[in-house]
Write a structure and sequence with these properties.
The structure is a single chain. By secondary structure, this protein is mostly beta strands. It folds into two domains: 1-106; 107-268, no CATH class. 13% of the residues lie in helices and 58% in strands. It contains four helices and 18 strands. It has an 18-stranded antiparallel β-sheet that branches. The longest helix has 11 residues, at 253-263. The termini are far apart.
Length: 268
């Protein structure tokens, strides 16, 4: 990293500066940003003015998931940082931040994240739950609110843009046969669940519960002769723990199994 500044003292003070960053890494609680590169040219230091369009390149971001290379275009004027563009690659898709501006005195900042055609197969590889694989592409919007030390998600929506398959090869709990009881029926269904649509809604904030509502429509060809079913499942808790520990932490198996039975064709 290198920096230089200049100032001309006359009837009016004229100043400027240049900051070069090459390979900087930053880390915080649960996140790491690596390979930051930029060359910022300030047209004024007092007050700070940075013309719009200055580029910042980022090699990678780790925040629960592993994001690929990203970039941002920024500027500073009137004591406000403006971000004209920002985005990262994720699982052969992208996460794009809508343009925004922020000032040190703002009590709250809103960021809208646009998720674009993220590959669920690559996401499931990163999450690495034993026996789980998911295919399909997902897109949507995740609105964030940042205030003090709190990050809130308000009515985020993610939806698949094409059909896919959920496969979860888990051992059945002792004493439960395939298709027997809520958890047995659910685990039987997701051994080879061919979904047509999958939709997830997200609401919550750090330090509190995150609520995820999931609706998935499809069928398992080996269950009830492939009769189509629709599951509506509400999850509440720490999402990172749910992803790390698998379906046995969800607490929804009996409810989902009962729902499958109610929709399945009845024997005459």
């Amino acid at each position: 990293m290198s920096a230089e500044g200049r100032a001309d003292w006359g009837e009016r003070v004229r100043s400027g500066g240049r900051l070069v960053v090459d390979g900087l890494s930053l880390a915080g609680a649960g996140w790491t940003v690596s390979g930051i590169e930029t060359a910022l040219e300030a047209s004024s230091l007092f007050p700070l003015i940075l013309p719009e369009g200055h580029l910042i390149a980022i090699e990678g971001l780790q925040a629960g998931l592993r994001f690929d290379a990203g970039a941002a275009a920024i500027g500073v004027a009137d004591n406000r940082l403006s971000v004209q563009a920002m985005g990262f690659g994720l699982a052969d898709g992208a996460v794009v931040v809508e343009p925004f501006s922020v000032s040190p005195g703002d009590p709250e900042q809103r960021l809208d994240l646009e998720v674009e055609r993220v590959d669920l197969a690559r996401v499931s590889e990163q999450v690495a739950i034993e026996g789980l694989s998911v295919t399909g592409l997902i897109s949507g919007t995740v609105p964030l609110r940042l205030s003090d030390d709190t990050i809130s998600i308000d009515n985020g929506v993610l939806e698949t843009v094409e059909p896919g398959v959920i496969r979860y090869e888990a051992s059945l709990p002792e004493g439960i046969a395939a298709g027997d009881g809520g958890i047995g029926l659910l685990l039987s269904a997701v051994r080879d669940f061919r979904y047509r649509t999958l939709r997830a809604t997200l609401n919550g904030r750090t330090g509190d519960d995150l609520t995820v509502g999931i609706r998935v429509e499809g069928a398992n060809p080996a269950l009830y002769e492939g009769f189509p079913v629709a599951l509506n499942i509400n999850l509440t808790g720490a999402l990172d723990q749910i992803l790390r520990r698998g379906l046995d932490t969800l607490g929804i198996a009996d409810e989902a199994g009962d729902l499958i039975r109610r929709q399945a064709p009845q024997s005459p």
